[in-house]
Design brief:
alpha/beta; three-stranded antiparallel β-sheet
Length: 189
């Protein structure tokens, strides 16, 4: 998860370049972390002066460049946020240069409106829309989203969903994910 405009539940230790939840302490200096800066919906945002937000955008750039599945969740790319959309587009590149990438948009707007808004990111019509987060690829196939998309669309295989539990806390999700992470580690060894 990236917090490109900050988050009220995230805090930072700017000395050690660490982030965590507001109640956490920095694992290096054990000091209370400071709340992350929030970028409000104003015409001119500054994505570079705050180290936490700048790092979030750098992580996004790296992730976009190597992504084969892009999930956009509830972000409408408002015209007031031209700089953010431009940063995202620069990181993603031209849709024409993408080969098989799948874009998934989770939003309450109509399919036509979402396709229009995100057309610069959609490769050859490879996109889906939904207004239900729990119907998304990232929820139905956590940790294996790319493999699931490949198997569904390229290998034409029936898939068995392994959805995350609904309405879970981050701690419950972490516990639920442990067997999946352990299986990944075994495969990597």
């Amino acid at each position: 998860m990236l917090f490109l405009h900050g988050n009220v539940h995230i805090a930072c230790c700017y000395v050690h370049n660490r982030a965590g939840f507001v109640a956490y302490r920095c694992p290096d200096c054990r000091q209370s972390m400071k709340p992350a800066r929030l970028l409000y919906p104003v015409e001119q945002k500054d994505y570079t002066s705050d180290p936490f937000i700048a790092k979030q955008w750098e992580k996004l750039r790296i992730a976009f460049q190597g992504a084969c599945v892009l999930t956009l969740f509830g972000y409408g790319a408002p015209t007031s946020d031209v700089e953010a959309v431009s940063l995202m587009h620069d990181a993603w590149g031209r849709a024409e240069t993408r080969q098989l990438e799948q874009v998934e948009i989770i939003d309450t707007k109509s399919r036509q409106e979402l396709a229009s808004t995100w057309s610069a990111f959609i490769c050859r019509g490879h996109y889906e829309t939904s207004d239900d987060f729990y119907q998304s690829w990232i929820v139905k196939h956590p940790r294996t989203t790319c493999e699931a998309v490949w198997n569904q669309f390229m290998e034409i295989r029936d898939l068995t969903d392994n959805p995350i539990p609904k309405a879970s806390s981050f701690e419950e999700l972490r516990d639920w994910l442990q067997p999946l992470l352990a299986a990944e580690r075994r495969r990597a060894d």
